[in-house]
Amino acid sequence: MNPIFNLNNKNVILTGASSGIGRQCAIIFSQLGANVILIARNKKRLKETYNKLEKGNHLIISQDIIDYDKLEEVVNTAVDKIGRISGFVHSAGIEMTLPLRNMQPPYYEKMFSINVISGFELAKIISKKKYLNKEGASFVFISSVMGIVGQSGKVAYCSSKGALISGIRAMALELTKKNIRVNCILPGVVETEMSKEMLKKLSEESKRSIIDMHPLGLGKPEDIANACAFLLSDASKWITGTNLIVDGGYSVR
After folding, report:
1. CA separation for the pair 69, 61 (Å, rounded)
2. What are the tens digits of pLDDT across the range 162-183?
3. Exposed, middle or buried: residue 183 (CB in 10 Å: 0-12, 13-18, 19+)?
4. Is 228 helix (H, G, I), strand (E, B) or coil?
5. Which residues participate in catalysis according to the annotation?
6. Which of 35, 50, 212, 224 has its CA 20 to 30 A from that of 91?
7. Whole-angstrom distance, CA of residue 221 vs CA of residue 49
């Protein structure tokens, strides 16, 4: 008998698949038996991710996800080539650290377009009957612990991640009739290329302060990818509308 914690034959759409958490999600999903549809702008980096996957019916789609009018075409292509969708992970996201006094409306708009709106639009499209697996699906949004604790200089980032947290609760209720589960994962600071670049710009004291905020140390991309795989799998079939905090203890300090 197959273990319950697997993704055998599940077709999963994954945004932000070209690096960091998204790339690691793709690798682990493929190891657990999923067919992965990799979405990001950078085709070269998508190919690098693709080459790390276990054998399967995987697909690369190079697309800017804030070009909303193209998203249905993306989903249609995925379903046509791979099959109906049983999982969706919105890992794409951007970060910004800037004092409130320097913020401008376009900065908020860019943050929300990538972190929130594109993911919600994809969820809307995937949940259509013609694209959805007949047995239902699981949607996972990568939020952040910053969506519940806040941090100085991150008004736009924290608010966008908070929007995911509240939005998935409404989405979970609305999509239960289609047998779609919807959940969020709230990571702390994870050692990705983006976070490493951020830490390089800080003093040793500031860097040590951030690390010390995580009692279990900084996270690895696989820590988040493993949590995503759990929420996509049938092992979590009675979980929806919740926020899984994976932050090394950051939020309990």
Report:
1. 15
2. 999 999 999 999 999 999 999 9
3. buried
4. helix
5. 157
6. 212
7. 14
